[in-house]
Amino acid sequence: MIMDNKEFFAALGDLVREKGISEESFIATLENALASAYKKQFDGGAEISVSCDAEKGLITFSAKRYVVEEVVDKDKEISLEEAQELDPTHQVGDVIVKNFIPKDFGRIAAQTAKQVILQKLHEAERDNTFSEFSDKEGELMEGVIRKIDERNIYVELGDKKIEGVMPPQDRVPTERYGVGDRLKVFVKRVKNNGKNSQIVVSRSAQGLVKKLFEEQVPEIAQGIVEIKEIAREAGHRTKMAIVSNDSRVDAVGACVGNRGARVNAVVEELGGEKIDIILWNEDPLAFIYKALSPATVLSVTARGERSAMAIVPDDKLSLAIGRDGQNARLAARLTGWKIDVKSASSPEAAEVLAAIENEENEEFEDSAE
Question: pTM of the prediction?
Answer without folding.
Answer: 0.68
